[in-house]
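Cont'd.
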Amino acid sequence: MKVLLTNRSFRKEMVGVLLLTIFLIGFLNMDKLKSDPLFEKLPGAFIHVNTVFLSILIEAVPFILLGVFVSALIQTFVSEKMIQRLIPRNPIAGVIAASFSGLIFPICECAIIPVVRRLIKKGMPLHIGVVMLAAIPILNPVVFLSTFYAFRTNMQIVYARMGLAFAAACLIGILVYIIFRRSEQLKWTKEELIGQVLVQPAQKKLSRWKQTFFHAADEFFDTGKYLILGAFIASLFQVLMNRKDLLSIATDDLTSISIMMGLGYLLSICSEADAFIAASFGSTFTAGSIVAFLVYGPMLDVKNTLMLLAYFKTKFVVFYMAIATILVLFGALLLNQTVLH
Amino acid sequence: MIKLKEEQDWGFHTYIRGIILIGFMLLLIGLIANGKLGLFIAPKMKPFAYFAVVVFGVLGVTQFFRSTQKGQEEELACDCGVDHRPKGSSMKHFFVYLLFVIPILTGFISPEKSMDSSIADKRGVKYGSGLYTKPTTETADGKTVPTPKVDVDEYLKDPEAYIEKIEENIQEENPIQYVDVNDYYKEFASKLDNKDQINVTSENYLDVMSVVDIYLDRFLGKEMTTLGFVYREENMPEDQAVIARFAMNCCSADSAVYGTIVTGPDVKTWKKDTWYEISGTIDKTTFNRQKLPLIIVNKYKKVKEPKDPYVYPSSESLGIN
């Protein structure tokens, strides 16, 4: 038995060594490999997809790392009591307070999911968590500034984006409160449920910092796989979808709003940068549909849908997506008929 | 015995994960060292990538220590109540790790391509300033007014009455408003006023494009020198082409195409996606019912694609100094 075990661990050791060797060879010969005629012959579309795919990854990864670190710090250093003290008892007050939490945590949609999941695991009510998911990627100073610079000739759009995001996030929170109350919507593993009773700051042995690093690494692999898959799907749409064709079918209010929402979902652009893309669509789309793009994209896109599905029960994710879609759609229609007319 | 096996497995997982984290670190360092990072993300995002290099390094190294016998024993004593062990079959694990390994490998081997005409075709080129304006039309005296809603049915029923009604509406609403542009562009435009020759560089590209588009009438007849790749729209006359650049805000996924329409006798010989430096006189044209700057080319030369093909919004235009 002992021999078998060592044999087995030797084989595993070799897998790791091989992988590391491949990485090192790639690293040291990057210039040569990239200009190798074999790889240069790859079809243009493939190279474009790969470039956009890596772009999204390289852009999002630091923020995912930030998110998993904040989440790991919360796991290690914040107690459940602290969270319960901080959250207002009144659900409406709680929802409104949560929708402004982006002023304190100005993070985008990639980083927010691990943080919210951790907070909910630490006992934060579900409706508060959902409001944070929906509001923080939009109602924060960084996103406000980038929207302002992209639309400074049209301040109405800036206010409409912030206003619609606030209204939709609050309504989502209240609906979630009414329908799900305090029921459990996160996916837990059996071990976690047993451990839940025991959750308390660790007593000894593993230092808190070591724990934080370990949790962060585990969570990076947990979240990272969905980010990679989502980034890949988004890069396919980025490169292969013809946006000009979309413009030609956007004939009335409803279709142009729906198209822009679909686009926001599929392109999966970070909420900090999406205002510039929206502005570049220029005068082809109505103001309401631009606002819909700017509100719906950060709330939901390909990569965060995958992450949500990994962490929350499917029924809950479907509910969240459905109300977010309905609220943004009707909100944008209403804006088009009134303020932005 | 079972427990021992589980430990072994978890040790192996942390070991492989450590190597993958180091792989990501190597990829980022490689891209930074080769100067290729700029093809993926904008300069203002680079500090975040440096941060990621450090974090990947630290996480990777701690994973190695964690995978050792001693590290595993220590971890058993961890009371944090979180299940660290991954679930599922080894086949599933293989594919999950493959998912992480693929971008590292394609990052090492696949050549990068900056965006070109094939992407511009799909995204659509933005002419003039990147500022959002509501749909507008030009009135007879050259002023820009918001487009009145066109009701095709009503027009078909009685064209004359319909046109009359629209004209009435225009007068009633008195919608002639000048686009309110912020002070930065006003100042920028007045700086350019004194010059006869406007030099467009990668640094000032977006600002000059916006200003020349907004205050087109003030710049008519001036000389302009610019650089970009050749792009052609389907409905463009043969002697016209677009000299285009991709503008990146955060990463190449959010890049948009900006272009200037140029014309000249030799323009039809230009191949798409080749880079040209051109100079010529600023004139105006109408393309897709939009009033736009046009450059009448008098000098041009073929150039190599610049090392950094992208242009970025200037920090001044973003209000950051």
